[in-house]
Amino acid sequence: MITDYIHNLLKASLLRAVFFPLFYGIGILPAQAERPNILLLLVDDLKPAIGAYGDDYAHTPHLDALIARGMRFDLAYCNQAVCAPSRFSLMLGSHSTTTGLYGLGSQLREIIPDAITMPQHFAQHGGYRTESLGKVFHIGHGNLGDPDSFSTPHFHDKVIEYLTPASTEGGKLTREEAYFTNQQLDKIKSLPRGAAYESPDVADNAYADGRVAEETIRRLTAARQRYSHKGTPFFMVAGFARPHLPFSAPRKYWDLYDASKLPMPEFENHPADAPLLAKKRGGEISNYHPVPESREAAYSQALKRNLIHGYYASTSYVDAQIGKVIEALDDLKLTSHTIVVLWGDHGFHLGDLGIWTKHTNYEQANRIPLIFVAPGVTEPGSTTRQPAESVDVFPTLAELAGLPRPTGPQPINGISLVPVLKDGKKRVRDHAFHAYPKKKMGRAIRTERYRLVEWKPISNPQATPELELYDYEKDPLETRNLVHQNPKVVTRLKKILAGYPDPVKRPKKR
Questions:
Q1: Structure confidence at residue 268 (pLDDT)
Q2: According to DSSP H, which parts of 181-331 are helical?
Q3: What distance separates the 2 farthest-apart alpha carbons in the chain?
Q4: Which of 88, 348, 371, 408 has the fewest C-beta atoms under 10 angstroms from its C-beta?
Q5: Is 224 within the bounds of a domain?
Q6: What do you get for the CA distance between the two ends of the chain, in Å?
Q7: What pairing do the DSSP bridges indicate for beta strands 71-77 and 382-384?
Q8: Taking a C-beta distance cutoff of 8 angstroms, is the pair 118, 420 a contact?
Q9: Is 248 inside a domain boundary?
Q10: Which residues are catalytic?
């Protein structure tokens, strides 16, 4: 009996090996064919500070190896450089400007109660078992994520985490810990500030990302059994917290770097002639010591260097955790049956323009790593300069898996990138769209060369806008707003922007 079982299992495996790539390679799966598994790897605050993206300082061997397996998007952008809205855009396929999900505390089911998220779409149309681990939807700032999206309970772990008592004044609840655990939200400023970085000599699983990697591997092992015995495909999302602040990472990852050789910001002023509301100082980083609390206070060179060192160390730490997950995928013989996507929720300023963290419409806050590894579709080691957006991931994965194109009920603003995955020279659009709300709404068009940002009040879309224009061929550091020097470019990009609907106001709770 056991012999018959092994024989049948080997026969099934052989059939999968022969037929799966044939169906998979054209992106269309007949009903009786097996669906590809989906593994989404989400990384918080990760900009393309990765060796395979050309960062000579980054020590990211595991991400480099993963990227070498598939297609790297060199011009990928988030749709809003804030954790919660960016993750909503990924999971809904919708711009925040079409849903009103602008803030960290936005409640998805109060605003769009019948929304069909990406994992729900895969469960409904493909019979997928859907699971989430770590930071997937934003939990904190009054937000509880979206349990409705997944088949199984979410595996939650910390985003703000300290192991050194001195980092928390001896174990006190810090401001950012309170935000991310929904505690004392009305008393934030009365709480102590946690450390911006720490580097104890501990094992990887002493911090949340190590535990998320371990649990992901356990889930993959169980998924392999279901896939072999029942043919149940998985849609698994593993979210990693670092390099989000605080830069808490084991000492060995800090030791990978000589801090004196890490890149310091080249241009630390706001762009000349930029509108006042586009500028930023302070923000969330002010909730960490020894960062000055005053927005206008200068950072010492030592502080800048420590922050940059912490970001790179944290990136190397998460690189190692992702490496463990991919190694397990290989060991479990799931690689040829699984689409892997690596996605950063937004970028991160490291002192450029004098800005730290995100929450802007500038390049460093909005450009993200985006990688598709789709066996039979993507060519290993391929790249593209197709402008891509977070909202594109949903329709792209649906097409790759042979599922219907998502139709909502939320607006679907994404475009399938499958033609580009097959040929990096193909184009499905000539720009990316993103936005950031402040006192006015800043909506942006990013082409391969330019970015136009248009600032208008949400309540008055007919108002005269404040404009920004940057030329990344001649001025990659965004040193000057060129809106008056290039009127023809402004006119062309304003016409593109005019094709987008006016941004919706923040909807009232239902």
A1: 98
A2: 208-230, 251-254, 301-331
A3: 79
A4: 408
A5: yes
A6: 58
A7: parallel
A8: no
A9: yes
A10: 83, 138
Tell me how far the alpha carbon of residue 53 is from its chain's centroid.
16
Task: State how many domains the chain has.
Answer: 1
CATH number at residue 366: 3.40.720.10
460 in a structural domain:
no
Q: What count of other Cβ atoms lies within 10 Å of the Cβ of residue 73?
A: 25
Contact 280, 355 (CB under 8 A): yes
State the residue range of the domain holding 392: 35-431
- The string of pLDDT tens digits covering residues 313-341 is 999 999 999 999 999 999 999 999 999 99
Q: How far is CA 290 from the centre of its chain?
A: 27
Two tokens, residue 371? 């990688």
Chain position carrying tokens 């004196």: 260
Strands 139-140 and 197-198 turn out to be unpaired
Domain assignment present for residue 25? The answer is: no
pTM for the predicted model, two decimal places: 0.92
Tokens 């690596």 correspond to 342
CA 67 – CA 225 distance, rounded (Å)? 27
Beta bridge partners of 102: none
What is the Cα–Cα distance from 430 to 479, expressed in whole angstroms? 24
The CA radius of gyration of the chain, in Å to the nearest whole number, is: 22
Using the predicted structure, report yes or no on whether residue 19 has a pLDDT greater than 60: no
Q: Could you identify the residue written with the tokens 């998985």?
A: 234
